[in-house]
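Bit of a strange request maybe. I'm writing a small parser for structure token strings and I need a real example to test against, not something I typed by hand. Could someone generate the tokens for this chain?
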Amino acid sequence: MQQRNIIWIGSYPKSGNTWVRSFLGNYFQPTGKELSINELSSITTSDVRKDWFNKAAGGEYTGTGIDDWIIMRSKVLKLINQSTGGNRFVKTHSKIANIEGYHLIAPEVTAAAICIIRNPFDVAVSFARHLNVPHDEVIDRLCDPMSITSTDNGILEALGRWDDHVQSWTKAPGLPRHLMRYEDMVDNPKVAYKAMLKFLQVPAEYTRLQKTLKETSFKTLQEQEEKQGFKEKPAGMKRFFASGKAGGWVEHLTPEQVDRIHSEFKPTIEEFFPEIGEQAAAFVAGK
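Reply from user aminoacidic:
Good idea to test on real output. This should exercise your parser:
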């Protein structure tokens, strides 16, 4: 029986995935030196990296649709799982689902998951800026059960609706998981990351933890991006690490947009973000 090595870092886009990867990269950096945001791949990897798909395909991979991608993805996950003798952190924005008999998050390679969630109001604002599109267009995407992102080479990410995505990760049966709210990471990163390390059964060494928190503060990540650039930043985007705060949606969304998001996702918002749901209802009532 093969060993299950993958520890997923799973989230809907713009929910804090890069921040968590930066923390993990710096905390586990063997040299003890600060890890650049452009060196995250040395500690973590991703399920959409083209080099994995090329390796799985035995040459240049160019998919022509979901059928090509889902078959090749299964091979990619096996390669990633076999690439190390121990656990490997793997970033994903995929939901947990079965497509045409293939598990997007394959149980046979999965050891555990760190699930990161962020309220959909802030996700809408951040994702719109990421894609450089209007807020309404992104809200449509958050509400679309068939939402998929794709690259020119045919590597896809199956997102689905925001609430279905969150529920797929938080309710997946038999998955050892640790849940992190972006809002809690902003409010008290020390507590949030200590809890994550405890889940990973890794000692939270005081000096290393303090050093890593400093190296991965949002301000530090912004400064790194300003000096070095960030290779994961989409073309045309001014800045990847923009504000790093929670609750900025009140400055950017209209009452109508807030009402739509709240109405679409109310049960999931009430389950995971009750205080923000109350704020949204008050925001709409005061329009």
